[in-house]
Amino acid sequence: MVTLTGEHLTIHKIKQICYDNQPVEISDYVRERIQNSRQAVESIVRNGRTIYGINTGFGKFGDVKIAEEDVNTLQLHLIRSHACGVGDAFDPVVVKAMMVLRLNALIKGYSGIRVNIAEQLVTLINRNIIPIIPQQGSLGASGDLAPLSHLALVLIGEGNVYYHNKPHPTEEIFHLEKIKPVQLQAKEGLALINGTQAMTAQGIINYIEAEQLSYQAEWMAALSIEGLQGIIDAFHPAIHEVRGYVQQCNVAARVKHLLQDSQLTTHQGEKRVQDAYSIRCIPQVHGATWQTLDYVKEKLEIEANAATDNPLIFDEGKTIISGGNFHGQPIALAMDFMKIAVAELANISERRIERLVNPQLNDLPPFLSAKPGLQSGAMIMQYTAASLVSENKSLAHPASIDSIPSSANQEDHVSMGTIGARVAYTIIQNVRRVLAIELICAMQATEYRGTNKMSTKTKKLYEQGRAIVPSIMEDRIFSNDIEKLTDWLEGGNFNWDSCS
To answer: Does the keyword Cytoplasm belong to this entry (predicted)?
Structure first.
């Protein structure tokens, strides 16, 4: 059980909820905080104070006063009109993270919702009733309005959900599970959709996958070093300590540890004086990616515990302030940074693949072919890696440098953070396939060198990899091999982060 308080929510806890299906709960003191905030909203409605989003229209309609008898209808219209997302649906695990994040933001007590709104979210999370939310349609400011409106639709019994991994109308599943739709009251619709939870949820799933990918890249690199009889001296701790980057030192230490008893590595001067950068600079390049991921993690965890509604209610309703915490710029920049950093893992991996297959750069069989000339071997696998790397270069173009005005120029600067987060996920998938290709080539090269000379740790990776993809004895449809290994890497069925 994970207890949500509006504070101290971590990526690790989100992983427990979204991947391990840990249930969530909210504590009694959180309920009291929510109730105090709600009383302030109800007082505003009774007293006729004009407060944005409670008894006014939205966006450019913020100057339109809404009659007391219409404030509840206003919220329903808001959700229905803003639920205009399009395109493919977010992955259910992303939406579940979105629900957890939205719940955590609402229970901070600055949004003015009733307790039953929070309880409805708890019920849906714990029963794995996941809203179907289109990916496209958010500008990443004024909140992730379109995606979160599709989430809010489900709370009121509308829209569609995944139930046991299959799509169903929400009404059908609510009837089956005996769940009553909530009836939105003043401010609650706005509270549900003003926030950055779509981009942050996608960003957190990105981080979880990118972290695993970064460990995997170190294992692939270690295997390639053995296939190329690389120089281990470049991983000596003294080199990295004098530069001072902790992440660089850690990568060097982990790779060195993976290769500690290998008989396939060499020392400077034995076969060559220096290796190419794609081997020699693994700690520097991979380490810089880890630096970026540390930055991204920090921003995501701050945002996971942030109040991103507008307006926000302070001092039990004495102070109500309209601001812009829904603007996604911090996450937009983090996602763009992540795109570049993760893409670099594929960039350097593809260069190692080239060194493994190019007969002008090694003493291995040309293109790792069993019968060079008659059989092409890994020749076109390198093409595929190069294509994916080139595609990533286009995808890594920052989304955050774009902005376009909306709501009749009232909302005249937006973050495009949700686009950045979605594209970052695509880059991660491409990088995983490049690493799968490197693994195929590195296994073939180490096999040629002699698997009995591999390190204890890389031998384990080789054996598991070979259980999925056999040795290249003859040309075959290598697309199948790449996809099988890609699925295996994504599944996380290997202790990639362990050097024990």
So the answer is: yes
What's the rounded Cα separation, in Å, for the pair 37 and 60?
26
> pLDDT band at 500, cuts 50/70/90?
very low
DSSP 76-110: HHHHHHH---EEEEPPHHHHHHHHHHHHHHHTTS-
CATH 1.20.200.10 is held by the domain 203-491: yes
CATH class of 2-195: mainly alpha
Which pLDDT belongs to residue 360?
Answer: 95
User: Does residue 52 have an active-site annotation?
Assistant: yes
- pTM value > 0.85: yes
Task: Express each pLDDT in 353-384 by its tens digit.
Answer: 999 999 999 999 999 999 999 999 999 999 99
* Residue 54's pLDDT band (cuts 50, 70, 90): confident
Q: Where on the phi/psi map is residue 403: left (φ > 0), alpha (ψ -120 to 50), or beta?
A: beta
* 21 vs 311: CA distance, rounded Å: 33
> How many Å is the maximal CA-CA distance in the chain?
86
Domain boundaries, the chain: 2-195, 203-491
Strand-pairing partners, residue 3, are 25
Question: What mean pLDDT do residues 130-137 have?
Answer: 97
Tokens 């004024």 map to which residue?
A: 142
- Chain mean position to CA 108: 24
Burial category of 490 from C-beta neighbours within 10 Å (exposed 0-12, middle 13-18, buried 19 and up):
middle
- 52, 162, 207, 215: the catalytic one is 52
